[in-house]
Amino acid sequence: MAIIYHKANQQLPQDLSALGNLKVAIQENSAATTSQDVNVKSVSGVAQTARDWSSDLSNLPLIKAKTDNLDTALSTRATEATLSGVKTQTDKLSFDVGNALKIQNPPNLDTALSTRASETTLASVNTKIGNIEADADALTNDAIKGVLRTLGDAGATPANNTGKTVLARLVDIQDQLKLERWGKNIEPAWVHGAETTNPADGTALVTKAVSAAKTGFIYGFYITSAEARDFKINWTSGGVAKSIRIVHASKGTMFFTDKTPVNEGLGADASTNITITNVGAGAGIFQAGLLFAEV
């Protein structure tokens, strides 16, 4: 234990006698070390106030827990120059009175969003486009020609023409070409039947329905047969069943078209069916098609 001698006031510590003996007993702890409470009353003549350091010491683990977070070299952190560059950019920001960041609208956003088309409007437009597509798919040649004639009649009439526009005359030329090719102002189209295996007697290998208020005409047919067999083209005209027998002398395909329909003068009635059927049960694969038009 160190003995402190106060030279300034020529006094020995209070715990010592005039002969330098300790006035208090030395206490020994379990670790065979000695301890003694010492009160420091002054340091370099400055009086010291006694205080309990236990609360200070209890904060040491908390301080250590914080300093443990300093787990990387300071030299790897942002420099003053880097932070200065960041500050230069943040200084460009401005805030309103409520400390909310002010953001300028891009120059192209020059009108209120509420004035633009809503989801409901766009959905309605999409529906209308779908309807237009459906109507376009349903247009027939006659309907298209009617539109063209309307457009043509609404156009300017050349002075040297006989009251018709160029567009209307083109429609007339198209109609004339059809008349020359098919004998009627029509454009026949093929109707194909699927392959049929081992058809029973009277099986319809292909069927075409005549539209309401129309008359159907047969401008051609094809029949593929796996054997020699007879076939019939069947329709109804004037309420009476009609048919034409087609004889296949051997297996193969028969193909026929002509500008004059095979049922000329006996057009198929509206809302009836035109069919090709086999006579007798067939063995093998059969198929048939019709070249059909209606007026």
UniProtKB/TrEMBL annotation:
Protein known as: Uncharacterized protein
